């Protein structure tokens, strides 16, 4: 399986502008620039797309791991927060923190904890990221 996305950048780093699009069309010409990436201005940036990919991947992986444990979630809500900071003078994603809240009436906590740990380690985006990944997993019964 292959998936692709495309970015177009025009101009210099600080005043230039770019767009990002995905093969599926789910993201089409999403604007980004220096201010949306480094100055918290409204708009997209590559790091939030990585966070979205990690949250989505983890949620699906957790659903799969819960199924293996005989548990069926009513809902899984996951937020991923990536941290970018300088390392050796270069901007680096140093951490992805996952927070998930899962509703499974009557679920066993130990089975849930095992499934969450397996999903964190096994989701393809977790495996892609060469960074510290932390997890807060809450079970709502």
Report on the structure:
- The longest helix is centred in the middle third of the chain and has 23 residues, at 46-68.
- This protein folds into 2 domains: 5-38, no CATH class; 46-140, K homology (KH) domain (GMP Synthetase, Chain A, domain 3), CATH 3.30.300.
- The model has no long low-confidence stretch (mean pLDDT 96).
- It has helices at 34-38, 46-68, 109-122, 124-128; strands at 5-10, 17-22, 30-33, 75-87, 90-103, 132-140.
- A hairpin with a 2-residue loop joins strand 4 and strand 5 (90-103).
- With 141 residues, it is an alpha+beta fold.
- The N and C termini lie far apart (36 Å).
- The protein is elongated, with a radius of gyration of 17 Å.
- The strands form 2 sheets. A 3-stranded antiparallel sheet has the order 1-2-3. The chain has a 3-stranded mixed sheet with strand order 4-5-6, covered by helices on one side.
- It is built from 4 helices and 6 strands; from the N terminus they run βββααββααβ.
